[in-house]
Amino acid sequence: MPRRNLIRTSNYPYHITIRCNNREWFDLPLADVWEICIRNIVKSNKKHPVNIYGFVLMSNHYHLLIDTPNNNIDEFMFELNRNISHDLRILSGRINRIFGDRYKWCIIKDKKHFINVLRYVYRNPKRYDVVKKCEDYIFSSLYYIVNKIPLAFTPYEPYIGELDGFLRWINDESSEKIDGNEDNDAKLQKALSRSFFKYPIKRTSRRSSRRSMSITSNSSL
User: Fold this and answer.
1) pTM here?
2) CATH architecture for the domain at 14-216
3) What pLDDT, in 10s, does the model give residues 112-124?
């Protein structure tokens, strides 16, 4: 499949994610990887300024919510991933590449969708039973916000509304619907796989439509 042409925008935020090569885990303890990522987020942001809403590091990938007032998503991400890869190789002695492919991106135009993506990003550790509460995961910018621990960069609007209410919402297992859609990971991930965030449309086959019409017609006789 050909690579999508990058769309640069200063009007809407991006969801960014990238995985390790062959989906392998990082070769270093996650605490070391976290320090490397945060250091290079700061370094890259000084060179190519952006706004960062949230950052979550998992065992073999990371999630980043970001907007780019200077239309510089490519410059920032190139600088960030190059520096992370370089530092991880130096510290681990790894020869092969760190990340499997170019980062994946999605532009989120709708505010409601952005809120749901923010929830999705923060819920990653809870989804995989790493923690019981999203804010307890120490490799998330949310942990630092909630516990008022200084972070090397200042997240830009890291939560929506009042913090306690936001935390209840992202941890609530019963809030399983998004804009009338079932909030399963597959639908949201499909929406994030597009250039612009959009939930997949549930299509009805022609055979099912004809059958439905036939049943309706017979019932009216």
Assistant:
1) 0.86
2) 2-Layer Sandwich (3.30)
3) 999 999 999 999 9
